[in-house]
Amino acid sequence: MVRFIALLVGAAFAGVLLLALGSSVYGVITDPPAATAEHEFHLHPDQDSKKQKREIEFSFDGVFGKYDNRQLQRGLQVYKEVCSACHSLRLVSFRDLEGIGYNEAQVKNFAASFDTIPSINPDTGEASTRKGIPSDRFPSPFANDVAARAANNNAIPPDLSLMTKARHDGSAYVYALLTGFQNQPAELLKHFPDSKTPPGLHYNPYFANLNLAMAPPLTAEGQVAYLDGTRSTVPQMAQDVAAFLTWTAEPKLTARRETGFAVIGFLLVFCVLAWGAYQNVWRNVKH
What is the pTM of this model? Predict the structure, then answer.
């Protein structure tokens, strides 16, 4: 009797769940949710403003791709001269820059160009600052979150160390976002008059909710004077810094791929040798 009651209760519970599921599905079919500006006008990195397919290519794309150290160095220059005013790289040390082609002396000079590394005065015990050394990490541009919010319309600029790993489409997303700032389309305001970009925010169709607190960081050709003489157009600067931020997130990308090819080659040779050994050991055995 107890088992029968338990089965009856379980069947009733399952029936209620099925009824609720059916009711929800029916509601979505008969009364679909209203379209939103975010759904209609949000663009993916591989789409242009007319939602046409476009290609964003990097040297490290594909299984045989490799980092271009010259591009990474240009991206570092863009980060330091433009992005570092708001965004940190708290997981990257200055000495890591040897991985993009700098020698020890160049790394020391670069680290010393940052003279705001938090420190303690040994004579007074008070907080002070000093020049950077290779073992230091990139310093934060703000003393704390309160200062960051005060300077950025109450929004804390995210750390960029792992940004390309934290966003779908990674490198392409960073490139699209940096080059995607524009005036809000008249068509959007026509269909969604309540979706006007609020004061202090900036319209960008590649951002999830279309409006973000960050002002366009790359605004004009020549904003960064590249040391290698490359023409610094906005798309070029955006692509270079996107490549650099990909390296900060995956500095061992090239080595990992090379190791993978070596492992695959070893496994193929091992399989051939194992098959040959099997044939040799069992060649005289009759089934």
Answer: 0.84
Calpha distance 247→257 (Å, rounded): 14
H helix runs in the chain, sequence order: 2-30, 37-41, 69-81, 104-112, 145-151, 163-166, 170-179, 186-191, 234-249, 253-281
Rg value, the chain, Cα: 28
Residue 62 near residue 75, CB atoms below 8 Å:
no
Place of tokens 């040959």: 276
Q: How does 221-234 read in b/e, with b if 16+ C-beta sit within 10 Å? A: eeebebeeeeebeb
Asked if residues 37 and 192 have their Cβ atoms less than 8 Å apart, the reply is yes
> Per-residue pLDDT for 212 more than 80?
yes
**Cα atoms in the Cβ-side hemisphere of radius 13 Å centred on 200:** 6
165-178 residue pLDDT tens: 999 888 999 999 99
